[in-house]
Amino acid sequence: MENAQTKQLEMKSETVKAKKVNLQFLQTWLPPIIAFVLFIAIWQFGVLLMQIPPYILPKPTDVLSATVENWDRLWASASTTILESVLGFVFSVFIGVSAAIVMASSKLLERSLYPYAILLQTIPIVAIAPIIVIWFGSGMNAIVIIAFTIGFFPMLSNTLIGLNATDRGMMDLMSLYHASKWQIMWKIRIPAALPYIIAGLKISCTLAIIGAIVGEYIAGIGGGDGGLGYAITVASTTMEIPYLFACGIAASLLGIIFFLLVNLLSKMLLGSWHESEMKKDS
Predict the structure, then answer these.
(1) Which of 18, 20, 122, 231 lies 20 to 30 A from 85 at CA?
(2) Under a CB-based contact definition with an 8 Å cutoff, are residues 223 and 178 in contact?
(3) What is the pTM of this model?
(4) At what angle do helices 241-270 and 190-219 cross, to 10 degrees?
């Protein structure tokens, strides 16, 4: 009898849990799905009713047809942009975090170098891109450096803020136990700065895509090696407007996928202990 009651309670608990998961899924995903469907419907029927020509604003169905017809071209361009963005992002993370650790280790170095990092950030990328092309030549190298330049400062700035915001009491406690500066950095300051580093990653990952596409405009190469920036330039000059829209949407999707991957990493690293990623009941 007791076993039967326990089984019933377990089944009831599982049912309530499944309903809660379904409700949470609907609350999370249903509003953006409805908004997306409404947007596409308004775009499609709005263009039809107003009889807007495709070279001004193509319908979503025109963009979809152009995507299917030019899939090989689009995928080759997107693959090139993905490679350039990932390389630029990896360099910006590695060099940005390393530079922040060096600056956080010495106030003299921070005061000496940080103003020049700000200076680099304030110069428009279109102003320094031609110099990068002269120094490194057009093509992959210059594009990766441009993507790195755009993504570097958010990583440096966020990591430095996180390292400087470490609890002073914890650092003093480690000093009392004769921990070295690098032990304090590795065991206290870097873990404490992790949420700030993740915030920098979220900003930098989307900027890397933008940097790669801007780089392709300025320093891109043609033919099968051209990325989305080059494909957008060619599509605009040849008046392939639906394909131009397809390239723009592909660039946007790359940024979203990149951000979601970093967000997943954030949940894996911070989900068990930091308030920003812990699951909330309501």
Answers:
(1) 122
(2) no
(3) 0.85
(4) 170
Q: Is the pLDDT of residue 277 over 90?
A: no
Reply yes or no on whether the pLDDT at 103 is more than 90: yes
Q: Between the CA atoms of 218, 224, 229 and 234, what dihedral angle is there, to the nearest 10 degrees? A: 90
- Give the DSSP letter string of the chain: -HHHHHHHHHHHHHHHHHHHHHHHHHHHHHHHHHHHHHHHHHHHHHHHHHT--TTTS--HHHHHHHHHHTHHHHHHHHHHHHHHHHHHHHHHHHHHHHHHHHHHH-HHHHHHHHHHHHHHHHS-HHHHHHHHHHHH-TTHHHHHHHHHHHHHHHHHHHHHHHHHTS-HHHHHHHHHTT--HHHHIIIIIHHHHHHHHHHHHHHHHHHHHHHHHHHHHHH---GGG--HHHHHHHHHHTT-HHHHHHHHHHHHHHHHHHHHHHHHHHHHHHTTT-TTTS----
Higher pLDDT, 47 or 12: 47
Single-letter amino acid code for the residue at 111: R
> According to the model, what pLDDT value does residue 75 have?
94
